[in-house]
Amino acid sequence: MKRPAATPVILTVDSPKTGIDLSRVNNRMIAQSPALRSHRPVRGRLPLPADGAAKSRFRIATTGAWTVIVEPQDTAVPFVSTVTGRGPEVLAYQGAPPW
């Protein structure tokens, strides 16, 4: 998938009927550590840090339909002190430094 090279983004991953194993792969198509692994249907958001490359490669293993959406980093859920939720999410702390 293409993205601005110096910009972190958020991946929204949806596998509504089956589990999924999503892993980033290197230039030789060798999988690195899994970005998302679920044995059940899942919808979640994951951070994808800027690494200087304009392309990112992933291996997606599932038996069902899936969708991946690339979103800007400012779509992270803002919070100040407490937040609750379910499933993988990307949060943006908006409060004062904790120290």
Describe the structure.
Helices cover 0% and strands 45% of the residues. It is mainly β and 99 residues long. The protein has one domain (9-93). The strands form 3 sheets. Strands 4-1-6 form a 3-stranded antiparallel sheet, with no helix packed on it. Strands 3-2-5 form a 3-stranded antiparallel sheet, with no helix packed on it. Strand 2 and strand 3 form a beta hairpin. It starts with 8 loop residues before the first strand and ends in a 6-residue tail after the last strand. The model has no long low-confidence stretch (mean pLDDT 85).
Layout of helices and strands:
Layout: E1 9-15, E2 20-25, E3 31-38, E4 42-48, E5 57-61, E6 67-72, E7 77-79, E8 91-93
Parallel strand pairs: 7-8
Antiparallel strand pairs: 1-4, 1-6, 2-3, 2-5
Q: Brief description of this entry?
A:
By secondary structure, the protein is an all-beta fold. The chain is 0% helix and 45% strand.
Task: From the structure above, extract its key features.
0% helix; mainly beta; 99 residues; 8 strands; three-stranded antiparallel beta sheet
Q: Give the count of structural domains.
A: 1
Number of strand elements: 8
Query: What do the pLDDT scores average to?
Result: 85
Report the sheet with the most strands, covering strand number, pairing sense and barrel closure: 3 strands, antiparallel
* Uncertain ranges: none
User: Class by helix and strand content?
Assistant: mainly beta
Helical segment count: 0
Question: In which order are the strands of the major sheet placed?
Answer: 4-1-6
- Radius of gyration, in angstroms, nearest whole number: 15 Å
Q: How far is it from the N-terminal to the C-terminal residue, by CA?
A: 38 Å
Described by the principal axes of the CA atoms, the overall outline is globular
Order of helices and strands: EEEEEEEE
The helix content, as a percent range, equals under 10%
What amount of the residues lies in strands? over 45%
